Amino acid sequence: MSSEILSAVSTLAPGGVVEVRALADGATHSGYFDDYTLLAEQVEALDADPAVAGVYVTLNAVNPALLARRANRIKMRLSRKDATTADADILRRRWLPVDIDPVRPSGVSSTDAEHTAALNAAERIAAYLKEQGFPAPIRADSGNGAHLLYRIDLPNDETATEVVKGALATLDALFSNEAVTVDTANHNAARIWKLYGTLSRKGDSTVERPHRRARILAVPADIGVVPVERLEHLAGLLPREEPSRPKASIDLAAWLAGHGIAVRSTRPWQGGTLYVLAECPFSSAHKDGAFAIQFANGAIFAGCHHASCGGGAQRWPELREMYEKKGRKPEEKATGKKEQEEQPPSPPPVDEHRHRAMEILRHGDPLAFLLGTFNKAHVGDRTVAECLAMSLASQSVENTNGLHVAVSGNSGKGKTHACTTMQNLIPDAYKLKGTVSNKALYYDDDLRPGTVLLFDDVSLSDDLQEVLKSATANFREPIEHRTLTTERKLRVCTIPERCVWWLAKVEDMGDDQVMNRMLTAWIDDSVDQDKRVLEHMKEVEATGSLPTEEDDVLVCRAIWEAVKAEILPVRIPFARRVQFSTTQNRRNPGMLFDLIKCHARLFYLQRDRGADGAVIAREEDFAAAARLYGALSGTAGGQETKLTKNEAAALETVARMGVEVFTVRQLQAAMGLSYQKTRRLLNGYVSRGTPYSGLLEKCPAISLYDATVTEDGGCGVTVRRREQYFTFDIEVYRAWSSGATVWLDDGPDDDSNDSRFQQNDSNCCHRDEGQNEEGSVKDVQDPDRDRSMYVHVQQNEKTESAGEKTRGDGGGASVSRIAVIQNENFTYCGSKEEHASIIAPLDDSTCCQRAEIRCHSSPPVNPANYIPLPVAKDEPCHVCGRRPTSSVKRGGGAYLCYDCLKRAKRPAKVQPLPGVLDHQAFARVKVELGRCDVCRTGKAVYRSREANICEGCYARLVREWNGREGVR
After folding, report:
1. Taking the complete model, does pTM exceed 0.85, yes or no?
2. Whole domain around residue 438: which residue ranges?
C-alpha cells in the first residue's frame, strides 16, 4: 500500500512540499513533507487507525517555508495554535479538481449503485470537457464518488480563483442532478484532496455501504495543461449576472409544461431556477445537455452545453420561436415534416392570484389589502403590521437605505406572531424559515437579495450589531465579512444586498446606534387587546383553523412578487414643504422620507412616472407616512424617544403616580415587575460586555442621588443603609415626550429652486415664494390651508404701543410690535441687521425658533380700490396669476380674481405669544386640539380661554414664570 501512496503523491505533487492532513473523530493530524518515501510510510501507519475517517494532501504548490512547522513528521491532535495551510500559503495553482459525489445522507458511505452513478457522471463530464478542448484528465475513484484532475498553470490570485470557481459552477449547473452533484466548494487554492491508496471511512462499514479505498484509475501518458482561454471559456458559458428584465414576464415552468417540453430536474441558480431538459430541443444528434434558466427578475436563458449545439450560447429566442410561432416540435423542424392538421399550442394557465394582485395594484388599495389579510390571522397591531409592510416595500426602492423594524413588548403578547404572520404573506424565497444564529447568515449560500431576516428573542452579538449597522449604511450593496475557518483559511462570507432586519424582543434590542436605525414599534399589550385576541381564538377554534394557503395569502404573495420584480427610484417633488417639529435625531427625517417613498412604491401602478422611470410620490403618500410616523412617535412606538414598551410604561407610571421622588421598590410595586427588571429599566445594564442604556440616560426628566437611610432595626438597634432616590420632573417629561409632529406647508411644488429663501435685490430680506425673480407673481395656495408662521414687524425707535414692550438693540433699533399672524398681505423692508433683530425675540422658544419667517414684497390688497366686473374677464390676477378675474383696480391695469378679493376682505388673525399668557390658566386635555396657536407646529394639548398650546410652549410659559419668580 505504501507504494501506491508514494505513486499517488508523486503524481499529485511532483516535487516540493506537501501537507498531509488526517481527519479523525474530533481531532486533526497534520505534517509537512518533502521526503515522499517517509510520507508514504507514516501515512500507511496513520491509515491503519480506525478512528481516521480520511487522509488528504494539498494539491497546489505550498510555500517551502511551511516545512519547518512539522518537518517530515505527523503531529497528532493539533491544538488551536497549530496552523495548517491557508490560501495565502499557496505559491501557484496546478490542478482543477472536479469532485463528483453521489447524493446520499451525510456521514455515510455510498452504495455500489451510487458509486457507479458518480463514476458514470465523471465519464460524461470528461467527454464534454474533451469536446471543449480540454486535455485528458487524471481519473480517480475517491472511494465514495469520482474525481477528475485537470492540470492547470495559474497564479494564486483573485482572478484565478474566480476562473476556477466559475468553471466548477458551470459543471455543477450542467451535470448535477438528483443522483450526483459536482462539488463547487473546491475552488480555494489551499483545498486538500483525498490521498489515493488510503481508505475512505464515512460512518460504519456495512454490506450495503462498505468502506472503499481511494485509487487512481487512469493517468494520461502526457498530462497536458489546460489552456487558459479554454478554462475561461468554460467559466463564462453560463451567465453570472441576470440578463435585462423582459418587458413581458413569462413563467418558464408553465411555458415548458404548456409546450410539452419535459424537464429532467430543477435546482436553484443565482436566485432563480435552472431547468435541465430531458431531451435537447435544438438537435437530434444528442439527447442530453439542454437547459433553461429563469432568473429572479424574470429573464430567461436557454441553451445546450454541447459545442456542436451552441456550447452554452443564449438560444431562448430561437426556442421560443420554434414553439410559439411555428407551432411544431423540434424533430418536425429538423425533418421538415408537419402534420396536416396542427393545433396551436395551448397557452399556459392563467394565475388567478397574480391576476387579482395586479388588479389590486392598479385600481385598489394594496396596503389596506395586505393589512386586512394580516388581521385575519393576527388581531390588532395595525401599526406594527404597517411598519413591516413598509419595510418590505423599501427593498424595491432604489434611493433608500431600507427600513428595519424593532418590535418590543412584554413576553407572550404577540411580537413573534405578528412578524411571522407578515412573513407568511411574502414568497418563501424571500424569508428565512425557522430560527437563525448570530453567525449563520454569513454561511448561508442560499440567501438571496431582498430577504427578510427575523431575529426573534435573539441577543445580538457585537459582531452582528456591526453587521446590522453596515446593512443600514450600505443597504444597496452586499455585506462582506472576512473570517478564518477551523482550518485557518481565509473565507469571505457575503450577506446579499437589500435584506431587511426585523427584531422582536422584550428588551435588549441593541445599543443606541442600532436603535437609531430602526422603526421602533410597540406591540399592543393592553387588556382590551387581550380580550380581542381571546375572542379571535375562540372563533378560530369554533369554526376550525384557518387554511395556511388561503386565497388572500396567495394574492398577497403575488403582490409582493410584482413589487419585488423591479427596483425603482421614487421622487418626492414636495420634499421642501415637509416640516418637522423636532429634528434632534437626524435619522428620523430620513425615515419619514423613506416611508413616503415606500408608500408610493407600493402604489406604483397608480402613480405618475418621471422621464427616468422614477415613481412620483403624491401628497396622499405623505399623509399615510405622516400618520404612521406620528403613531410611532406617540402611543404605538418610541421613534423619537427610542424607548421600548416597558420603558415607556415605566415613565407613564411615574407620571401617574404624581410624585417628584421615588425609589425602585415604589416603581416595582406600581408596575408589578421584579425588582431586578425595574432596576435595569432605570439604571441600564451591561450584557456580554455591551452596555445598554436605561431611563437615567435616555430621559432628561429623571435624575438620581444616593442617600443614607437610618432605620430602627428593633431592640434599640439603628440600621443604616444606602438607598437610591430618583427625582422626576413632570414638566420636563411632558415636553420631552410630547412626540414629533410633521406637516406639509402649503405652496407650489418647485423641482428647480425654492425661491422663498433667496436674497432679493431690494431691501426685503427674503423674496415671497409667490414672486419670481422678475417680480411677477406665481401661483399661491389658498390661505385657508396655509399653516406656516408669519412674523409682522414694524420698526419704531421711540414709539411704544399700549401694552407692548420695546426691545432695544445696540444700534438703537427696537421692535415695537411683534405678533404671529396668519396672513400673507404684509410687507417688511429693511436691512439684514434689522432682520436679525426681529428674529431675536423668538430665540428663547423651542417651538417658535423653528418657525419659518417670511417677508413678502408684494403690496397689500385694499378691497376698496377694486370694482367688480360685470362679466368675468380672461386676464391673469396680478396677485396669484389665476384666470379668470372678477375685479379690476380703479383706474385700470390690475385685475383681481375672486379668491384674492375674498382673502383681502378677511381680517388677519393675530395670535398671542407666550409672553402674555399665564400657564396657570391652562388645563391639559386627553385629546389633541389641533395645532398649537402659538408656534403652529406642535400638537395642542393644553386649553385655556385665550389659546390652545403644545407641550413645548407650555413648558416655555412655566420657565418664564419661574424666571419672574426668581427675579422677585
Report:
1. no
2. 356-567
